[in-house]
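Entry 14. Ran structure prediction on the chain below.
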Amino acid sequence: MILSLTVQGKTIPLNGSSYLLTVDGVTEDDYLALSSEDIRVEFVWGRLFIHSPASTIHERIFGFLFSLAREYCLLQQLGEVFGSRLSVKLGEELRLEPDLLFITEDDREALSPTLFAGTPRWVVEILSPSTRSYDLGQKLQIYKQFGVGEIWLIDPYQQWLRQLVAKKDRYDDNIIKEGRVFSVILKDFWIELNWLWEEPSPPITRCLGTIRKASN
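Output, structure tokens:
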């Protein structure tokens, strides 16, 4: 268990509460020295964003959607879905870790064992009280600036999904509170929004069967 972090010679205590720590004036070398599979860290133009451990509600939604989307994309041979431990390098001094991201076979040349150096086609962020302002603010603007094709922002507390889809010179931006959510990037993929809120999550095989049956 990680109890503290040392950045630029300073020891930062960590605890089990929800937090989003920021550290300014750091370099990419600092980021690389700190980042690991044990802790979620993002690097944005000289600033580190250090995330607290995920909540149970976050992990339930993440695990369900990751398994569902990943299995669907592999079965349909669309590409591959990765989770939040894969770093995305969008540019110099810019490393983000989306909760979920999708790449096609054409994107694989930008994939290495430790990062994806390019723009994902589809990303998902699951909001939490500590990251809400960051995810809906600076992080969303970065995704739009670099032309991510489709962005899903999931609020498990107010139970809505915000879907942004890139157009030629803008993003279509809609908040969905009920019914089905249809992906534009993942061909014929959709979810019932209430699947995300169920406790426990519905079986992946049942949901996959429902999606594929409706698409045929």
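The helical segments are 28-34, 56-75, 132-145, 204-215. Will compare against last week's run tomorrow.
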